[in-house]
C-alpha cells in the first residue's frame, strides 16, 4: 500500500495552500475532500441552471499576495475585480455610501454630519496604526511564550520589539483597542448613528458578539488588513466566484504533481504509538501517510477525527471550550433581473459594492439579543453583494446572483436543532428586509439557497457554521490560537498538524494559516523553505 | 447656543460623479489654462500650472499674480467666547489680535504635536475666520465644549483669491478699492463690492507685497473680472501652485504635509512634531494661560526632549536638493530636505530641511547634502556643502512698505 508523504484533510483554501507548499518542497501530497467538489468555504457552485453562486465566502481581500505569487495563482487563472464602494440604507429612504476617493467619501459623510465627515482622518489614522502593528504578525508563527527554543525566543523578541517600539501612550491605546467594543471605539470619533453602524459592521462579521461586546474592535481590524493587487484595504470579487481562488490553488497543486481525491470523507485519523499514520475514510478504506495535516477546524479535528484517549485531558478540555459559536448564515439568491433600490441614483457605484440595511449600532445589538435568546434575528444584519454587477461570468446576461451574509443565526434554535421550517423563517427575515428597500424584489427571485449554521456545518464541515473556524477575540489569537501550547500548527499527536483558520492568524480567505503551517512542517522535516516568499515588509 | 449646530444637506450627491470640486473661479481658470495640468487640492481641481511655470513665477516677483485659494479649508468662529476658543486652540495670544488683524498661527493636540498651521482673521470682536490646510471641525467643536460660540465650516461658501506681487496694490487701487493703501501688513478690512462686501487682507504666502481677498462664492467671477480688467496694464496673470511653491520657499514658509506631517495624519509616531521642531516655536505663548498642548510643549522645553529642528539651508551650486538626505561630516545621516529650489530672487540654491538634534541646534557646521540629479537616465551624484541660514531667504522691503508702492 502506498504511503503518502503527507495527507491533507479538506480541500479548502488553507488545505490547498498548505498542500501546494509541501508538494513544491518535493513531498508527495494527497488532499482528501469529503465533497464531490473542492473549495470548502471558498467555492463556486451552480445549483440552478445559468447561475453560479459564491455560496459561502463571497468577497476577496485578505488573501496574502505573497502566497498568490509563490503559488502562481494569476497564472492559474485567478482574477480579482476590485469594487469601489458600498452603502448602508437608512430607514428614512436615504443611504450613506462609502467611496474610495477620499474627498468624495468626506462629502458623502457630510450629508449626514459635517463633523463626522471631518473625524474620518483621525479614525483612519488610528485604525491604520493598529493594522500596522498586527500585519507583520500574520505571516509568522506565533511564539510559544513558555518555550526556551531559540526560535520561540526570537519570535517573542520580535513581538516584544514590535510592542516595545510603541510609545507608552500607543501601548496603552493598543491594549485598549484589542479589548474594547467596536461601539465604544467608534463613539470616540463619530456621533451619527448611520456612520457608526457603517463602520461597526466590520467588528461583528463572523463573530458571536454584538457591537457592544468587548473585543469587537479587534475584529474590525481583521477586515481592514487586506488588499486587492496592492491596493491596501480594498475588497473585490473573484471572477467566476470564490471557487476561482480554490480552483487556481488546485490547478497549481496538480501542476506541481499533487493529487486530490474528492468524495473521500475522513472518518478518523489513524494513530499508533502517539503518531499519526494516515486516515480512515468513510467506508473503511485506510490511506497511509507519514503525516496528516488537518484543514478542518480544531473541534472537528480533535473531537471527531481523533480518539479522545490519544489526547491529553487539558488539551481536550480547551478544545471543547474553544469558542467557535455559530453566528451567521447565508442566503444566495438568483434574480431574474437587477434589483432596484429607489434610494440610490441609477448610476450609483453602490450597486457594485456591499450593501447593508442596519442603520444603527442599536439595531445591530438588538439583532444580537435575538441570537443570545437562541433565535435568528428578526431584523438581521445583512452584508449583501451582487457580484454579477461586475462579473458577467456568474449569470446569464441581465440576470444576477445576489449573496447575502446574514447575522445573527444561532447554532441551535431555542436549544434544539434547526428544522426546515426554521430555515424558511430565517430566509423570510432576509427577503422581507431587502424587499422593504427594493420594491418588486420578491418577484425577481428565481432560485434561492438558504444556509443556516446547520447546512454550513453539514455541507462545508465548519463546526456550528462559524466562518472563521473560531472567533477572533483576543483570548483566541496569537499564541493562544487555537489553544495555549498548540499555537504552532502542531498537536499533541506526532505528525498530526493543523492548517485551518482555527490556527493563527485566523479566518477569512487569507491563506496565511496554511502557509505558516507548511513552514513549520518543512522545518520539522529539515526541508528548505526557499520556495516561500518572506512576508512583505511593513514600513 | 450649541457648538454642534450642524446643517444636514441630504440632497446633494454630485460628489460620486465628480470627485474634484470646481472652484468658484473655475470657469476663469479653465479659460486661461493652456497646460491642463491639474492636481487635487483638498478635493478641488486646482492648477499646478496654467500656462508656464517659469513665467508664472516671474508674475509674482515682477508684476502681479492671482492664485486661487478657495480650496483652503475655512471655518467661521462666532460668538461671545470666540476669542476664548481661539485662545484655547491656537498657540499665539489671541487677546492681542485686534479686530481687523490677522495672525499666522498654528495649533496642537494635547501632546503638543502640530495639527496644522494657518491664518486667523479677526473680522470683528466676536467673529473669526480660521484658514487651514487640513480639516479640524471635530477638534474645534470639542474644544468649544461649554463655550458660547458657533463653529461653522464655510470652505465651499467662500471664495478666496491671493493677489501677490509688486503691482498688486496698483491692481486693487485701479479696481477702485479705496482705502486699501491704509492696510499695513497683517491688516484686514471689508470693502463694498456688488451687493455685499469683499474682505481684503494684506497677507500672502510669497514674501512679497500682496493681498488676499475673500468674497461669497457667488461673487467670485465678478470679483475676478473686476481685478483682471483693472490689472491689464499692471501685468496681472493667473498662476498655479508650482510658481507659488517657488515663492513660498524663497519666503521660507512651510507647507503642512510637505514640510511636516500633521498629527492627525501621522501614522508613524516618530513623524509627529512639536512647534519648536518645525520652526514655529516663536508662536508659542506660554504666558497666556491654558491652551491645547501647552503642558506638553512646556515639558519638552524643560526636559530638552525635542528631537528635531527645522532649518533653512543654503547649498553650494545651483542644483536643487529636493528630498535630499542631509549628512554631517559627509557620513552621518542627520536629516532630510523637504523643499528646495534654486532661487531666482536670491540667486542661491536654497532649501528647508528637518534635522535631528543636536544637528541644526548645537552642531551647525560640516553639513552636506547628497543630491541625486537624474539626467538622461543617469544619476549625477553630488555631495554639496550646506550652510544653515536664517529664513526667509529673501527680504523685500515692498512687502511691508507703507504706503504700499505703486510700481
Question: What portion of residues of chain A is helical?
Answer: 25-40%
The CATH fourth-level homologous superfamily of the domain at 14-72 and 156-250 in chain B = Probable tRNA modification gtpase trme, domain 1
CA gyration radius of chain A, whole angstroms? 22 Å
- Count of β-strands of chain A: 22
Computed over alpha carbons, the radius of gyration of chain B is 21 Å
Most extensive interface, residues per chain?
A-B, 37 and 30 residues
Series of H and E elements of chain B: HEEHEEHEEEHEEHEEEHEHHEEEEEE
Distance between the termini of chain A: 51 Å
Oligomer, anyone?
A: heterodimer
Largest sheet of chain B: 6 strands, mixed
CATH top level assignment of the domain at 3-42 and 239-322 and 470-524 in chain A: Alpha Beta
Secondary structure: helix percent of chain B: 10-25%
The share of residues in extended strands of chain B comes to 25-35%
Output the strand order for the largest sheet of chain B: 10-11-12-9-3-13
Main β sheet profile of chain A = 5 strands, parallel
| Tally of contiguous helical segments of chain B | 8
Please tell me the CATH architecture of the domain at 3-42 and 239-322 and 470-524 in chain A by its name: 3-Layer(bba) Sandwich
Q: Tell me, rounded to a whole number, the average pLDDT of chain A.
A: 94
The CATH class name of the domain at 14-72 and 156-250 in chain B reads: Alpha Beta
